[in-house]
């Protein structure tokens, strides 16, 4: 039996993979709705991440089978402890909404991708594409909120934050933007793309990374300040334990990697126009998000070990499977050479 800290690596990996699969189509939808012409540079690459959904679904099944290993509140409730959990927090209901939710998202996202491919063919096709594109942001927010609540917020019984779903979405979408920038840079520098992405895209993505860095700190501090001023034990305990417990190094590293370094660096135009510097900052944002996901999941009680070896093994496995899934999709769509 894996310790909770080790098992939390699986939960954190699921959140990361799911958000990467979710965010590609979400970005394309938003860029289309605001009329951003540079969407044509990145849309085919971005929607290729849809191919990660099968892996995300398999990981979801494993986590649901894990029961109280994944959801500690199940153990609290089953032992008759006096904790408050909403009536819809039973494992059968949770499993049903998570499975149905992911299947619905996969269907809507697949519809978006298919209609995007033929959107310029006729006015009728363009109208159909516009219709589904309008729905994507709503589905994104609803689904992201659901998984944020089920797999992170409610892990500690009675702990609740009204802004947590939005803060989680902003954080993970910022990670996706950082990943997309690194991905484009690697493909460009290795000359793997059939059609090279133009250099100005790095600056555009860097500006969005800066915006989501500020949004993340705004939502993070809004939540933190509300809890700190309220000074209620049930709310303060979780924050204090993450901040001052066994994972304090990861907590403060998260602040530095997700806010201090990106904000100070991306404010400068010279940084945003230097691809190598933006890639370095993107790496910081991704690592910071990995720390954030793990601390929120594993640090519910502030105790545990940092599973470096297990985390490395799981990460390697996820990267290898994800690489093969995305690469096969890109090759099938003739986006890469060879």
Task: Please provide a brief summary of the model.
Helix content is 76%, strand content 0%.
Q: How many whole angstroms does the radius of gyration measure?
A: 20 Å
Estimate the strand proportion. Answer: under 5%
What kind of sheet is the major sheet?
A: none
- Helix count? 13
Basic shape: globular
Topology as a string of helices (H) and strands (E): HHHHHHHHHHHHH
Number of DSSP E strands: 0
Helix content: over 70%
Assign the structural class, choosing from mainly alpha, mainly beta, alpha/beta, alpha+beta, or little secondary structure: mainly alpha
Total discrete domains: 1
Poorly predicted segments: none
Mean pLDDT: 93
Through-space gap between termini: 43 Å
What does this structure look like?
The protein has helices spanning 4-33, 39-47, 53-66, 73-78, 91-117, 123-151, 164-189, 200-230, 233-244, 248-266, 269-272, 275-298, 308-332. The longest helix has 31 residues, at 200-230. It is an all-alpha fold and 338 residues long. The protein has one domain. It has 13 helices and no strands. Helix 1 (4-33) runs antiparallel to helix 6, helix 1 packs parallel to helix 13 (308-332) and helix 8 (200-230) crosses helix 10 (248-266). Keywords: Membrane, Transmembrane, Transmembrane helix. The chain crosses the membrane at residues 12-35, 47-67, 87-109, 129-149, 169-187, 208-229, 249-270, 277-296, 308-326. This is Polysulfide reductase, NrfD.
């Amino acid at each position: 039996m894996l310790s909770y800290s080790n098992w939390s690596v699986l939960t954190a990996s699921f959140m990361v993979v799911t958000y990467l699969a979710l965010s590609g189509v979400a970005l394309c939808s938003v860029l289309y709705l605001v009329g951003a012409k540079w969407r044509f540079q990145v849309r085919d690459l971005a929607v290729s991440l849809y191919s990660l959904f099968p892996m995300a679904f398999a990981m979801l099944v494993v986590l649901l089978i894990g029961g109280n290993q994944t959801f500690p509140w199940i153990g609290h409730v089953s032992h008759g402890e006096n904790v408050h959990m909403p009536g819809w927090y039973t494992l059968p209901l949770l499993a049903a909404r998570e499975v149905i939710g992911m299947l619905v998202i996969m269907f809507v996202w697949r519809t978006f991708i298919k209609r995007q491919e033929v959107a310029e063919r006729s006015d009728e096709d363009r109208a159909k594409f516009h219709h589904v594109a309008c729905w994507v942001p709503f589905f994104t927010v609803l689904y992201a909120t659901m998984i944020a609540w089920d797999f992170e917020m409610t892990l500690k019984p009675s702990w609740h934050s009204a802004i947590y779903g939005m803060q989680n979405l902003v954080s993970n979408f910022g990670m996706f933007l950082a990943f997309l920038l690194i991905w484009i840079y690697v493909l460009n520098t290795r000359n793997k793309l059939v059609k090279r992405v133009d250099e100005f895209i790095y600056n555009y993505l860097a500006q969005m990374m800066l915006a989501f860095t500020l949004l993340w700190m705004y939502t993070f501090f809004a939540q933190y300040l509300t809890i700190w001023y309220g000074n209620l034990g049930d709310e303060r305990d979780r924050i204090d334990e993450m901040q001052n417990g066994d994972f304090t190094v990861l907590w403060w590293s998260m602040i530095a990697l997700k806010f201090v370094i990106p904000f100070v660096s991306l404010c400068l135009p010279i940084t945003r126009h230097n691809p190598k510097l933006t890639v370095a900052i993107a790496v910081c944002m991704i690592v910071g998000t990995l720390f954030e996901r793990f601390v929120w999941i594993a640090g519910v009680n502030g105790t545990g070990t940092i599973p470096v070896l297990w985390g490395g093994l799981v990460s390697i496995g996820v990267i290898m499977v994800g690489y093969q899934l995305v690469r096969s999709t890109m090759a099938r769509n003739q986006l890469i050479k060879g």
